[in-house]
Specification:
Length: 352
């Protein structure tokens, strides 16, 4: 048995593959383009593991995908590959359209051809699981109920619009062609291997480097945080038991204002790695220009996943965030490696 995982050198994809192979003896084919966000080092512990094959390539390269499918005959495909950073989508949406929309379309086409040719029993068992985001639902007011699967799509950024388009394509391939698809819409993840362009790893990195901790606008925007390994366990559960053609919201019931997340990180760092001058990392907090079109609040209602598939997160925000800070303190070589070169150009442009 084999699964194919796209975007496996990125933050969530890498965590998924590492956790999968820690628990299953099933071969994994990793397909990743290795953009700035993809890092072979994330999968370094699998070097020499015969159960894992890494292939550098684009989900939009239909000839490559068709060849991989024909050679390895996967029973499932998990699509994590995407351009994922909202701020980058504001500076330059083109790559988001190419990978998230055109790339997903080409991947679906290659998968449809492969699936159509499978023997009936394998056809029935096959799954295409598409990993998506809560951002497709738009922004909530402080009193709105959390997003349910039945909420309408109201994406506000080029990133979320491109993910919404990909979700629609996946849905249409089920409805029209019968492709056995599943979609998950998850809230903000955090944990090991999170690229330091995103809030939590950026704050940890800047704090330790003695740099300003940039808070967009008033810092009162709310995100709903989930430890990445809980997201991975939810995906495994949906793959195993999800109803075909359905979508599942994934979240940790952890709504936090950005400023509170940053205060928590500063307080943990004050305990774990105090500043040389004995003052708090909170002194590095700097309010900066807001993100254009910044969504005010996301909140996920994950009750369907719990009710129908019995999934619950294992970590609270308090336990997960401590583990995360510890991981970054223990993995400074990884941070130094990913924050060289192109990363500095991005930070220069975004926070100029
Ligand atoms: P990431 O940016 O860390 O990783 C994306 C990976 O995809 C990288 O390894 C990159 O090289 C690869 N990739 C990009 N374009 C590709 C292409 N055309 N072909 C093959 N590979 C390509 O992203 P992430 O945070 O790990 O997110 C993974 C998925 O989960 C995305 O689909 C994202 O929309 C979704 N998601 C992320 C979060 C979050 O909080 N990070 C929350 C919910 C959903
Ligand atoms: O909700 C799920 C989404 O979460 C995923 O689909 C995206 O791929 C992922 O990047 C993430 O999007 P966000 O925009 O919510 O994450 P980010 O870490 O970029 O920002 C989190 C919040 O922190 C957001 O309100 C913007 C704010 N922020 C971010 C940065 C980078 C700051 O205040 N300062 C910053 O420097």
């Amino acid at each position: 048995m084999t699964i194919l995982v796209t975007g496996s050198a990125g933050f969530i994809g890498a965590n998924f593959v590492l956790d999968w192979l820690a628990a299953h003896d099933e071969k994994v084919i990793s397909l990743d383009k290795l953009t700035y966000a993809g890092n072979r080092q994330n999968l370094a512990s699998l070097e020499g593991d015969a159960r894992h094959l890494f292939v550098q390539g684009d989900i939009g390269d239909d000839a490559l995908v068709a060849k991989l499918l024909a050679e390895h005959q996967p029973r499932a495909i998990l699509n994590f590959a995407a351009e994922s950073h909202v701020d980058r989508s504001i500076h330059g949406p083109e790559d988001f359209i190419q990978t998230n929309i055109v790339g997903t379309f080409r991947l679906l086409e290659a998968v449809r051809a492969y699936w159509n040719a499978l023997p009936e029993a394998d056809k029935q068992a096959f799954r295409f699981l598409h990993v998506s985001t809560d951002e497709v639902y738009g922004s909530l007011s402080p009193t709105d109920p959390a997003f349910k699967e039945s909420n309408k799509y109201e994406p506000n950024s080029p990133y979320s619009a491109s993910k919404a388009a990909s979700d629609h394509l996946v849905r249409a391939y089920h409805h029209t062609y019968g492709l056995p698809v599943l979609t998950t819409n998850c809230s903000n993840n955090y944990g090991p291997y999170h690229f330091p362009e995103k809030l939590i790893p950026l704050i940890i990195h800047n704090a330790l480097a003695g740099k300003p901790l940039p808070i967009y606008g008033d810092g009162q925007q709310i995100r709903d945080w989930l430890y990445v390994k809980d997201h991975c366990s939810a995906i495994r559960r949906v793959l195993e038991a999800g109803q075909l053609g359905e979508t599942y919201n994934v979240g940790g019931w952890n709504e936090k204002a950005n400023i509170d997340v940053v205060h928590t990180l500063c307080d943990i760092l004050d305990q774990e790695q105090p500043r040389a001058d004995g003052r708090s990392y909170r002194e590095q907090i700097t309010f900066v220009k807001d993100r254009p079109g910044h969504d005010r609040r996301y909140a996920i209602d994950a009750s369907r996943l719990e009710r129908e598939l019995g999934w619950k997160p294992a970590e609270t925000f308090e336990t997960g965030i401590r583990k995360t800070v510890r991981w970054y303190l223990d993995n400074q070589a990884w941070v130094n490696n990913v924050t060289s070169g192109a990363y500095r150009e991005w930070v220069g442009k975004q926070y100029a």
